[in-house]
Amino acid sequence: MPNQTIRLLPLIRATLAGTSALALVATAQAQEAQQETAGNAESTALETLIVNGGSGGVITADGYVGTSSATGAKVDTPFLQTPQSISSVTEQQLKDRNPQTLLDVLAYTPGSRVNAFGFDPRFDSFSVRGFDVTYTGVFRDNLRQPGASSSIFKTEPYGLEGVSILRGPSSALYGASGAGGLFNLITKRPTEVPLHELQVQYGTDNRYQGQFDFSGPINETDPVYYRLTGLLRDSDTEQVSVPDDRAYIAPAFTWKPDEDTSLTVLGEYSRTKTGGTAAYYNDPLTGEVTDIFAGNPAFNDSVQKQARLGYEFEHRLNETFTFRQNARISTLNTDADWAFAYAPNDVDPTLLDSSAGTFDERLTAFVIDNQLVAEFDTGALDHTLLAGVDYTKLRFRSLSGTGVSPPLDTNNPTQGRPVAAIDFSSRVVQDQWQLGTYLQDQIRYDAWTLTGGARYDWVSTDTDTTDLATDAVSTVSQNDKEFSGRIGLTYETDFGLAPYISYSTAFSPNAGINRETNQPFKPTESEQQEVGVKYLLPNSNTLITAALFNIDQTNSLYYEVVDLPTGPENIQVQRGKVRSRGFELEANTSLDNGLSLVASYTYTDAKILEGPADTIGNYVSSVPRHMASAWAYYTLPEDGPGYGLGFGAGARFLGSSYGNDQNTTRNSSRVLFDAAAHYDFAALDKKYEGLRLQVNATNLFDRREAVCSAGFCYRDRGRAVIGSLRYNW
Questions:
Q1: Where does the TonB-dependent receptor-like beta-barrel domain lie (predicted)?
Q2: 336 burial level (CB within 10 Å; 0-12, 13-18, 19+)
Q3: Residue 218 and residue 34: Cα distance in Å, rounded?
Q4: If you average pLDDT over residues 423-444, what whole number do you get?
Q5: Number of Cβ within a 10 Å radius of residue 446
Q6: Which contiguous run of DSSP H or E holds residue 9?
Q7: Per DSSP, what are the bridge partners of residue 596?
Q8: Taking the CB of residue 31, how many other CB atoms lie within 10 A of it?
């Protein structure tokens, strides 16, 4: 019986926790907002529609090429002057690739390992540079987007203006965050130029979707602008009893009474219905993943409701000082039932014993960031000095209970099996607050930019765990204090080449208690050395970047079988150290001839230096040493015979990796292909101006191989084809 418990616990944990280890525009005044690129009436030569980017991280971009953002420094800074690896997914990339999940959005960015957990529409779990960033590295509009357990905010790509990505430890500005870096999701904002869009989609697995996006001034006289984005989807998936239904609405308003003051309000509400589990059965006798759905179609519902309301305020006090305040309150509620088949029945091996459970999680987070920016000179030195104080308050509550599901019949695996009502047996309530103060100075002298930043954080976490059967309460309190910093030097040549070198640190508090020592976990800490070069080609809309990095992470958490007084259990322990070294190369271009391209190569050597005895010196599971990708899109010119047509194609190479930290199993290498095509009906007649038909396909050749992470195996998501008809006016 103990052996069965040891085998079952990681499977349940993978099911519940989602397979994860726990500006433009600051000065833009609508400059020629709707310039057309060759053959594409929807593209803009510069994405300068946003009324005011504030400090939310909005990207200055020309087609596929992002050149500036506030993500790397919390003040709008050219990428060439940012002494750290930074890249972007622009609005035009989103339009051409039509991604349906956050993982699709990030699929062509260097260092990003997506789909390590195969098909699973419940969570956007991913890693970068070998480190998981699901809980610590996702930000929204430059503010932390917290997560806990299964409470992970879902991202609707249609609500995004773009994504700005800062790789490597970044706590000097952002506080508690991971070693891999941060992904700043940028919400669509109001535009000065009127925007109207309606779209319908139909795709694989009976996917029906309608969406709209309206924006512009409220009227001709008041300095108030609006944006309203919405979506409604009804869809099955490749897995029985796992829908992908969503309702989404996102209103936004900007008030700009004068050139020195602006206030933008951003809101969102969404409801998503999917399955409590989407996993395939792993055969414990062979160690391989099967094609059998491990859940129970009659007991597999998951409904997540989330909402957020925030604002970005900016006021320029005088020629030197600017004050900014960004704030947001977010709520998330997830109710889910799940069942999980874990082993053959002792009497009848065609039946698989199954566990079941239910949970109700609620998460509320309030985040506020106050910034004072000073721009001044001291002799020959130009300064951009940033001082700030931010605060995060999080409350997480979870009710959960476990039970038994009738065995799964392998001869009829899609048959639902009634499950008796399961009562909640435990309650966890966690309150956490974080207060941080930071200072950064960007000092420019001639072609040199020296960036230095320091921050100090105080974090307090209280966790109450109640056994509802006995009303026994266990309380764990922990307080963490941490200093973090960054220093980097950049040199810009006259011909667009910018080499840089930097050092940065990060930390991430770990909630919970180490049951091996009965002490709270220490924060996980990391430090990085990076050297790189960025090249913005003169007279060509092309940006090429390369970076060498070395990251050391200490106080890592692992799951390990430990002999406790109650018997052996697979628990979380802390004695780890991971080192990730690698090289990244990225190129983005959008040319006047209608061709746009993104390409990247990543080499990652992520090893466990300290941890469980059977993992020391091994590679981190599911982190390929080699990854490469390329996506190209070509729109035929107006004066050619194919006017109105456009074609895109992409390939994503994933090298082989290990399926567990013991390095006893391997994931094979693979190449996944994507494709797209569109036709603008204006080519037939100008009266059809703004009408466009587009078809996108991911995993075109339907490769559904096994992929294993931390010893549990999944299957790659199969082919998806989506057709969309869009009308803009």
A1: 255-700
A2: buried
A3: 19
A4: 96
A5: 10
A6: helix 2-17
A7: 590, 633
A8: 12
| CB-CB neighbours of 451 under 10 Å | 25
571 Cβ neighbours under 8 A, 6+ residues apart: 515, 516, 559, 560, 562, 564
CB 475: neighbour CB atoms within 10 A?
A: 10
Tell me which fold the domain 2-427+438-728 belongs to.
Answer: Maltoporin; Chain A (2.40.170)
For the record, the structure tokens of 615 come out as 């993992």
Q: CA–CA separation, 22 vs 14, rounded Å?
A: 10
Number of other CB atoms surrounding residue 376 within 10 Å: 12
Number of Cβ within a 10 Å radius of residue 405: 26
Sign of the Cα pseudo-torsion (76, 78, 84, 88, in order): positive
Q: Which structure tokens are listed for 651?
A: 């390939």
- Of 465, 429, 487, nearest in space to 168 by CA: 487
Please name which of 620, 648, 622 lies closest in space to residue 635, comparing C-alpha atoms.
648
The answer to whether residues 357 and 400 touch, using CB atoms and an 8 Å cutoff, is yes
Please check whether residue 230 is in contact with residue 271, taking contact to mean a CB–CB distance below 8 angstroms.
Answer: no
Half-sphere exposure of 712 (CA within 13 A, CB side): 22
Taking the C-alpha atoms of residue 58 and residue 189, their distance in angstroms, rounded to an integer, is 9
Encoded tokens for 393: 């308050």
Whole-angstrom distance, CA of residue 338 vs CA of residue 355: 8
Cα separation, 294 vs 354, whole angstroms:
8
Tokens of 187: 């919400």
Q: How many CB atoms lie within 10 A of CB 563?
A: 9
Q: What is the bridge-based pairing of β-strands 595-610 and 720-728?
A: unpaired
Q: What pTM did the predictor assign? A: 0.91
Q: What is the pLDDT of residues 308-356, one digit of tens each?
A: 999 999 999 999 999 999 999 999 999 999 999 999 999 999 999 999 9
Instruction: Indicate the pairing of strand 645-654 with strand 626-635.
Output: antiparallel
Q: Are 317 and 132 in contact, with CB atoms under 8 Å apart?
A: no
Closest CA to 527 of 185, 291, 178: 178
In sequence order, what E strands does 681-719 have?
691-698, 706-709, 712-715
What's the distance, Cα to Cα, between the start and end of the chain in Å? 66
Q: One-letter amino acid identity for 692?
A: R
Tell me: the pLDDT tens digits for 231-279?
Answer: 999 999 999 999 999 999 999 999 999 999 999 999 999 999 999 999 9
Residue with the two structure tokens 């709209």? 212
214, 251 Cβ separation under 8 angstroms: no
| 3 state SS for 545-597 | EEEEEEEEEEEEEEEEEEEECCEEEEEEEEEEEEEEEEEEEEEEEECCCCEEE
CB atoms within 10 A of CB 713: 23
> The tokens of 365 are what?
């987070």
Are the CB atoms for 141 and 477 separated by under 8 Å? no
- From residue 590, alpha-carbon distances to 97, 138, 187, 254 in Å are 15, 27, 23, 30
Q: Identify whether the C-beta of residue 295 lies closer than 8 Å to the C-beta of residue 338.
A: yes
Query: What is d(CA 264, CA 187) in angstroms, rounded to the nearest whole number?
Result: 11
| Buried/exposed code over 648-672 (b: 16+ C-beta within 10 A; e: otherwise) | bbbbbebbebbbbbebebebeebeb
Amino acid at 570: N
What does the pLDDT look like over 419-432, one tens digit per residue?
999 999 999 999 99
Residue 51 Cα distances to 216, 252, 309, 468, 562, angstroms: 9, 11, 19, 52, 57
Count of CB atoms within 10 A of residue 219's CB? 7
